[in-house]
TrEMBL record, chains A, B:
Function per UniProt: Catalyzes the synthesis of D-serine from L-serine. Has dehydratase activity towards both L-serine and D-serine.
This protein's UniProt keywords: Lyase, Magnesium, Pyridoxal phosphate, S-nitrosylation
Gene3D superfamilies named among the record's database cross-references: 3.40.50.1100
Pfam families linked: PALP
Tryptophan synthase beta chain-like PALP domain location: 28-318
The enzyme's E.C. designation: 4.3.1.18, 5.1.1.18
This protein's name: Serine racemase
Biological process according to GO: D-serine biosynthetic process; L-serine metabolic process
Family recorded in the similarity comment: Belongs to the serine/threonine dehydratase family.
Cofactor requirement: Mg(2+); pyridoxal 5'-phosphate; Mn(2+); Ca(2+)
InterPro entries: Ser/Thr_deHydtase_PyrdxlP-BS, TrpB-like_PALP, TrpB-like_PALP_sf
Top-level division of the source organism's lineage: Eukaryota
Amino acid sequence: MASDAEQKETYAATLKSIQEARERISGFAHVTPVFSSCCVNQIARANLYFKCELLQKSGAFKFRGACNAVLSLPKDIASRGVITHSSGNHAAALALAAKIQGIPAFVIMPKNAPKCKVENVKRYGGKIYFSEPTLESREEIAQDVQKQTGATLIHPYNDTRVISGQGTIALELLEQIPELDALIVPISGGGLISGITLAAKSVNSSIRIFAAEPKGADDAAQSKAVGKLLTNSHTDTIADGLRASLGSLTWPVVRDMVDSVVTVTDDEIVKSMRICYDILKIVVEPSGAAALAAALSAEFQSKLQEESLNHIGIVLSGGNVDLGVIGDYFN
Amino acid sequence: MASDAEQKETYAATLKSIQEARERISGFAHVTPVFSSCCVNQIARANLYFKCELLQKSGAFKFRGACNAVLSLPKDIASRGVITHSSGNHAAALALAAKIQGIPAFVIMPKNAPKCKVENVKRYGGKIYFSEPTLESREEIAQDVQKQTGATLIHPYNDTRVISGQGTIALELLEQIPELDALIVPISGGGLISGITLAAKSVNSSIRIFAAEPKGADDAAQSKAVGKLLTNSHTDTIADGLRASLGSLTWPVVRDMVDSVVTVTDDEIVKSMRICYDILKIVVEPSGAAALAAALSAEFQSKLQEESLNHIGIVLSGGNVDLGVIGDYFN
């Protein structure tokens, strides 16, 4: 086990870099509200506090990291633009951050990305290149475009600026609800949970952090189980935002500081989406509902009692979903 | 034209009764948030401020009036319970208000009420009696149950306590966004718009009030046109909460103080629901989206310019919608 000082150098972000990100994106990103509901608390047998990142600009938390990354670039480098490959929410967020700075954004998206996520990128003026739905195809096209344009690659999660930006959620949430004793955060590439964990444990070292992961893309659960970074060989989940695998910068945080990974089925995700729509009256995408699904799972419900957890922060990460698809889920 | 003093006695509520209602329901009802969006403002060519009554307890503004009515009852009368006939949102709101006070609520609902609205009444412990989908059938059954139980009838809108409760929305909204120069409010039986109009024009006499009404249930537009209270002989709209006709207490306010009624088609309502889901990320029912539909209509867009209106309050009245139906609307 490394000492505290060594650990801090090891990880991709620090409380300081996250505080600086907060300062940087202030006035650009929303301080999102926290919702709660007696009805949902009854179902969950705990007090849940929903951090509504679906109400963030661009409809997802991704704007925080993208905005911090864009605003961190020196002017001459920024002017050549930014580029990314993403299933969608990071792409739209980066396009919006670039638009605000008046620089171009080049986006490589898989052909099968949800229509609304493609529309979001277009809405913010991003230039789209479609790839095959594999990481290899995306990265190859990204490299080509980068060579042509000189744009800076902003990775969706394996980037310290992005991780620091996402961590600002925890600083806000722990000010909004200081009594939280646990957080549940969806996990995919790990940028969101890394930033949040580094920030939250710096502010409150005893806070417990749980990752919510689809069973059909459970690289984090598998990696934690064997103590070694594994990647998804294939994925099968409706949570299109949670299909990525952990990266070299995010895995160490998940390995050392995330307390546990709770896996959830697509059925559990749909059930949680229904609660968000029916009771909270907010639009969440499947990935966005994963943390609530984890909170309601038998696995977490037994942890609640064992560990006497009462006040749980739930990160509802985004709300970009094709409306036509919603009816199919709920019928 | 009656003098100011005479007028104040004529109308169903006063600034004082609305302020008292606010005091009474404080701590029971939510002070709902106001949302805004640059993207929506671009579409609407004005600054829109969305008063999110879908986030009110029971999922609609109706809780304000129901709660004020229940809390206004003397204890011995309250103990026998309350009764109403309603298309749903008032019913659920009354059931919740009664539950909070520990008294029974008896609810007569039309057989064809949306499933989620029936579920909402059940969730709050209301006792349901189903009627034919006509006002006559509802009122007949209500009278029978009232005779048996001694419960107090709380009309969905033709009730001064209810109207005063709904008016609290305007007091909140004009404090939240003092620069508003117009409000758009959905109209059905008129309880919501009467309360809001009486409150808003007391606080700011120059504020303009527009009613949003479905073309398929346009008794208010027809009544305003001829200066005489007319009722809908039949209705044809997806906005199930806007099918009622104005009442004796609400018509005078609409006649004298509502500036104009803007009618909207079901297609316009669906388009506005889509904007709420896609951009604002909130769940609205068809009735709840009517005011935004009015704001985007050609009729209102020309008024915007003629009258130099810049800051428009939009009352999103409720969010109780069957999720299975949403997909049908949006496909």
